[in-house]
Amino acid sequence: MELLDCFDRALDEFGSRVHAVDPGRWHHGTPCAEWSVRDLVNHVTGEHLWAPVLLSGATLEEVGDRFDGDVLDDDPVGTWDRAAHASKEAFHRPGALDRPVHTSGGPVPAGDYARQMISDLTVHAWDLARGAGVDDRLDPELVSEVHAYTAPRAASWRGAGLFGPPVEVPRTAPLQDRLVAMLGRRP
Known about the structure:
It holds the Pfam family MDMPI_N. The protein is mainly alpha-helical. The chain has eight helices and two strands. It has helices at residues 3-20, 37-55, 60-63, 76-92, 110-132, 140-150, 154-159, 175-182; strands spanning 100-103, 106-109. The radius of gyration is 16 Å and the shape is globular.
């Protein structure tokens, strides 16, 4: 699958679940123990507010704290939609994937940044579905792409505290279950 097609699908997976959140479930828990549904959507929305700025060449210091705290205000769905739209436009801008992007881990190729965002969107779409009580089945092709990207990096990401220890599942479990289990979630 082409990188930008993968990115678009991951945005759609997460976005469809944002739109499916029942108003009474925004404060329900998610598989990310410290985050409610709203906290999770705020986290991912914040990342996508950063994307256009970082893809334009800004450093973390130049961005500062402008996307800290609650970015959702009174309109979580609308704020997500605006952030996702701006992020998609930024990733699709001609030449956007040709330069490095400044991240907390240092400068990385924009393609790697896109893959990290795809992985985050995909896994958090599952987390959001679980917290919101909606369908958690993800696009199988997207799951395959994310699994292939994250499997060789999972141990180092886990060491950096990005997620908990893996959950044991049978080797014959569906790939989606193996993906979320590898990232510390109980399918």
